[in-house]
Amino acid sequence: MKTQSEEWFEDFCARSGIECERIKKESNKTPDYELIIDEQKIIVEVKEITRNKEEQESDRLLLESGYRALSNTPGERVRKKISNSSAQIKARTQGINPSILVLCDLKYGCGQITGHLDPYNIRVGMYGLEQVHFAVPRDHSISPYATGMSYGPKRKMTKNHNTTISAIGVLSTPSQDKIVLTVYHNKFAAVPLNPQFLTKYDIDQFKLEDGLPNNTEKWGKVMVILNSDNCS
């Protein structure tokens, strides 16, 4: 039985004109779909995020008392989905084809900067929590001061980890008759996803910008100019 997010993904592909074929389930876990764009095969795994027990309890408290009790580590749900999907994606891509891990938070739409899949949660889920570095001068009359920032603990995307996931997609329904897919490219992908393939379908794409010295890279929108040969 298809999940809600799988139905939305198939609907999005059908509306966009993307060739999408569901992969036959095998004894071992397999990804969900193969896309064919300009003769390029792209492997897709679709995962949805639902309210866990802690969030359900927080929702109950909000209704009963008007306050919410909830503690979340930024990017935690994204990291779990990466861990749960990496092996089956790797088995299908075989180091040849790019892949997209598509995530869908059923409670929120893409137009809201909230939920587990906003750009910040995606970024720190992939590359680690941001940490600030401080210098402590030997001269105690001088206060400690910040020297920069870097990505630190809980990183999932590195040069040696989860490189078979080329990008993370966020699937959402900001309105009843609209489905949106936003793609965040993995800078460490062994087989990068060419942004050219998705641009003609009006899919917003982001990648980490070149970072400033002593700072963390932030998302920058990928701008691709279509060649006339790709506009047919």
The count of strands amounts to 10
Query: What is the element string, with H for helices and E for strands?
Result: HEEEHHEHEEEEHEE
> Roughly how many Å is the radius of gyration?
20 Å
Percent range for β-strand residues: 25-35%
User: Uncertain segments of ≥5 residues (pLDDT<50)?
Assistant: 109-113
Mean pLDDT: 86
Describe the 3D structure:
Helix 3 packs across helix 4. Helix 5 (196-199) links the parallel strand 8 (178-185) and strand 9. This protein has helices spanning 4-16, 53-65, 76-93, 119-127, 196-199; strands spanning 19-22, 33-37, 40-49, 99-105, 130-135, 145-151, 167-175, 178-185, 204-208, 219-221. It is an alpha/beta fold and 232 residues long. Helices cover 25% and strands 28% of the residues. Residues 109-113 have low confidence and may be disordered. The protein has one domain. The radius of gyration is 20 Å and the shape is globular. Strands 1-2-3-4-7-8-9-10 form an 8-stranded mixed β-sheet, with helices on both faces. It has a two-stranded antiparallel sheet with strand order 5-6. The protein contains 5 helices and 10 strands; from the N terminus they run H-E-E-E-H-H-E-H-E-E-E-E-H-E-E.
